Amino acid sequence: MKGNIDVSAHRRAVEFADGVYWVGALDPTLRNFDIILTTANGTTYNSYLVKGSEGVAVIDTVKENFSDEFFARLESEVDYSDIKVIVLNHLEPDHSGALPELMRRAPQAQLYISQRATSMLKALLHAEEGLQYTTVKTGDSVSLGDRTLSFLHTPFLHWPDTQCTFVEEEGVLFSGDVFGCHYCDKRLFNDLVGDFRFSFDYYYAHIMRPFKKHVMDALKLIEPLQLRQIAPTHGPILRERPRRYVTHYRELSTSSLSRGIGDDDQSMIIFYMSSYGNTARMAEAISEGGSTVEGVRVSLYDLQGGETDPFVDLIEEADALLVGSPTINGDAVKPGWDLLSSLAVVNLKGKLGAAFGSFGWSGEAVRMIEDRMRGLKMHIPRQGVRVKLIPTEEELEECRSFGREIAEVLVGKSQTKEVIDFADLV
């Protein structure tokens, strides 16, 4: 079907491959999703129906308050008694909301979920005892006669329970949230809808980016498939050139830093804010010290020079992050907190972190920054450096040593000495 369509004008199932239908729901007025994403074009809750010679499968459902739309489309094509299989690729409420009612209407259907989804199923749905389900993993499959559903375990995209389901005969990948986006267009297919590139990349940046390693693992399973269409749980169905979206995911998930500094070099980034130039002097000395260690590339940035968002890409690919801030009113200054809060969308686990700063009275900023870095699961190998007011030459030399020590830890020339917060021991 290549003609223009308007799925908002009816409540019928839409066939897009032989025996494969969209039975989802449209939510064009949604403007915020899960607090963290804006949705200028709303979203879709995509559910799918697969007809086989020996039964019918439903792949994912919809958000609970869109159940009427979902059931109307489902009923336009099959009887509930025909449904033999229900697959939940992901248990988040926008995909599982209609499940309890669907299982009430089709009690004979067998539910298939990933092995990691079992505890979430009961917690999310408050399912009654006796709920029957089968767990599956990569390599498992379910036959509908002339249609085969094969499962791919793709955890942390973006919850631990996520999986994909592939209809081998039609080359359709039901990808869950992967390759999706919050973009509602009643024309439904990527070759018919408006330009959704921004929504696609924006969704990746906020949902998938923290799990790049898991994206790459999933791509190893997906790339060998004979893909003809990708059917995600949000946004357009990718029926035209679906493989370009797979390629784009690989590009988005691949580090570009090595092309700039070399595969063998380690990257240390130093950010600072300075009221009277004292923390700036410390930052420069730390940079000098770090630069003396072979194999470490040091970059120095003044946060007063611009917005923090453009730095997120740099930090994600760096090996060490150092943040310097003066203490003002018992706190680190706002640009430092803005920077650290923007890092929730990237994976910093295991990266080296350190803090430094000048102060006039109490000097809490350094410890506060270190605590935030620990909360981001960074490794703090050295206690931060604090200097009262104007640093002396002796104190600047201490800063150089501090930078050198962090750099040596990066290249393995020095053992780490994790700073312990005694509050963590309580």
Q: Supply the number of structural domains.
A: 2
CATH architecture title of the largest domain: 4-Layer Sandwich
Average pLDDT? 90
Report the portion of residues in β strands: 15-25%
Would you give an account of this structure?
The chain is of the alpha/beta class and 426 residues long. Helices cover 29% and strands 22% of the residues. The chain contains 13 helices and 21 strands. It has helices at residues 67-75, 93-96, 99-105, 118-125, 197-208, 212-222, 243-253, 258-261, 278-291, 312-317, 334-341, 365-375, 393-410; strands spanning 14-17, 20-22, 25-27, 32-33, 37-38, 43-45, 48-52, 55-59, 83-87, 110-114, 133-136, 141-143, 148-153, 163-167, 172-176, 229-232, 266-272, 296-302, 320-324, 352-359, 385-388. It has a 7-stranded mixed sheet with strand order 1-2-7-8-9-10-11, with no helix packed on it. A 5-stranded mixed sheet has the order 12-13-14-15-16. It starts with 13 loop residues before the first strand and ends in a 16-residue tail after the last helix. Residues 419-426 have low confidence and may be disordered.
